[in-house]
Task: inverse folding
């Protein structure tokens, strides 16, 4: 990485929300608000890939107790400023088994974190979520997918490339759309009970239960 | 795609990332006692390492861990190749079930990120292997011990040349618009200068007696300045060309920290910013002449 450019990007955790807001044209914030609306006072909430803590903050405002997990210590430093009352774990999502107890969370949340994982990692994480989720708990995952409709797929690629470049320049971060996530959820022994699409099917919000 | 084509573009655009699929690969016919080698998912490294292991007929497991396509050395320094990354891979791919031992052979250059002590706390023994995978066979046959040569990191002219290429391509992409904006009649000379500075900062910087890379870049602009001052007669153009040469030399010298074995801890940011502001002011002044 070029040094001058790297210096500009050193502040990328602070720029992350701006960059992702740009990439998703505000859809990400909307999805986060809808996810946060599922949390209730006193809920134990786990935010996987919590990033800068914006979703954690929304849940705390609704009275939930939040634990944020992220492998990126720079992101967590910003999250601690944004939502200082949450608990944070600086670990990979694949390492949850060493740190979290069985059936300890009412709600598990995640936005744009699963698309950063490989298929094997996603299945492993879903199995861990199943272990730590209370029996009547729910999982809410907002992420990027490749639309199935041909026209929507064409629009997706035409729209995504310039936006991806712009976002990468600003944040050196991007997302990779996931496919066949329902299969992975089933493989982990869970089921999707509700799904909602955004931006011509480019983003999806899934509600998953045991 | 043919390997050498990939090699060329992955060298030219080395500043970008080239990830391959993280996985656990059985090389040859490994059994429960076979060694486990760990590397990053930088496509260039994985392709060449697999080729080497097959050529040497080494039976082993190769763990290609997810460093988002960054090479071992940079990923370890950037904090994306860490103990946590390795432990995560061991769990996701159930690596413990493949073998009857707990030894992991790690790249020596991962030392900044992957800690043996932390691996030990999770029941794994990390052993740092040689710097270059070309020494792996000897390392494995010598009972996992390294001689001095295996620990030495070379930064020879071939490596400097490849870094020069990558740095030149990057600086060209950064400078091409300013060159066309401020010196459209001289764009060939401008891009030529970018490549001169980028290659010189890799190939001959160690002969220039300054510690700061910024100063080395400025020193490299001296012969060009002499040429500029002696060949251009118009005084305004002479001043503008001088400013442009100093600016390019300063920028590429300073930027070389990101393409260098010398590390990224030189505290030249304020000098660089001051110098650039001064050059911009003087350039602005020439517009009124």
Result:
């Amino acid at each position: 990485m070029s040094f001058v450019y790297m210096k500009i990007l050193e502040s990328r955790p602070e720029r992350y929300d701006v960059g992702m807001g740009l990439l998703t044209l505000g859809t990400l914030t909307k999805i986060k608000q809808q996810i946060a609306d599922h949390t209730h006072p006193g809920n134990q909430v786990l935010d996987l890939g919590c990033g800068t803590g914006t979703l954690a903050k929304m849940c705390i405002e609704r009275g939930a107790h939040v634990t944020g997990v992220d492998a990126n210590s720079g992101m967590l430093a910003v999250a601690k400023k944004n939502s200082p009352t949450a608990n944070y774990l600086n670990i990979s999502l694949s390492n949850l088994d060493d740190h979290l107890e069985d059936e300890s969370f009412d709600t598990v949340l995640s936005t744009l974190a699963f698309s950063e994982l490989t298929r094997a990692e996603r299945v492993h994480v879903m199995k861990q979520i199943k272990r730590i989720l209370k029996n009547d708990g729910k999982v809410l995952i907002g992420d990027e997918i490749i639309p199935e409709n041909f026209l929507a797929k064409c629009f997706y690629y035409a729209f995504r490339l310039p936006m991806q470049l712009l976002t990468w320049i600003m944040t050196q971060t991007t997302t990779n759309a996931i496919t066949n996530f329902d299969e992975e959820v089933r493989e982990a022994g869970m089921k999707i009970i509700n799904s909602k699409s955004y931006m011509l099917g480019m983003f999806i919000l899934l509600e998953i239960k045991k | 795609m043919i390997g050498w084509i990939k090699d060329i573009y992955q060298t030219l655009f080395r500043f970008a990332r080239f990830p391959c699929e993280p996985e656990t690969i059985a090389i040859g016919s490994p059994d429960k006692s076979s060694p486990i080698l760990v590397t990053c998912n930088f496509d260039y490294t994985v392709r060449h390492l697999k080729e080497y292991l097959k050529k040497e007929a080494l039976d082993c497991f190769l763990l290609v861990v997810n460093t988002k396509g960054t090479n071992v050395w940079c990923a370890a320094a950037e904090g994306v190749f860490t103990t946590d990354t390795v432990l995560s891979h061991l769990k996701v791919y159930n690596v413990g079930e493949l073998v009857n031992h707990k030894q992991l052979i790690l790249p020596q250059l991962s030392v900044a990120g992957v800690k043996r002590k932390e691996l030990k706390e999770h029941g794994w023994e990390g052993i740092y292997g040689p710097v270059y995978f070309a020494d792996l066979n000897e390392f494995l046959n010598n009972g996992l011990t390294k001689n001095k040569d295996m620990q030495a990191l070379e930064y020879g002219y071939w490596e400097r040349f490849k870094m020069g290429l990558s740095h030149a391509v990057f600086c060209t992409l950064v400078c091409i618009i300013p060159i066309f904006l401020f010196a459209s009649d001289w764009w060939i000379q401008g891009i030529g200068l970018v490549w001169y500075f980028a290659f010189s900062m890799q190939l001959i910087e160690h002969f220039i007696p300054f510690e700061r890379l910024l100063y080395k870049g400025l020193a490299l602009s001296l012969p060009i300045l002499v040429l500029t001052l002696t060949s251009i007669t118009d005084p305004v153009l002479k001043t503008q060309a001088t400013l442009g040469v100093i600016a390019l030399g300063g920028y590429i010298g300073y930027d070389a920290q990101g393409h260098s074995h010398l590390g990224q801890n030189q505290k030249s940011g304020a000098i660089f910013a001051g110098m650039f502001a001064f050059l911009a002011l003087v350039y602005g002044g020439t517009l009124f002449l």
Q: What stands out?
A: Chain A has a mean pLDDT of 86. The two ends of chain A are 43 Å apart (CA to CA). Residues 17-190 of chain A form a domain with the Rossmann fold fold (CATH 3.40.50.150). The beta strands of chain A are 44-48, 65-69, 87-89, 105-111, 133-144, 191-198, 203-209.
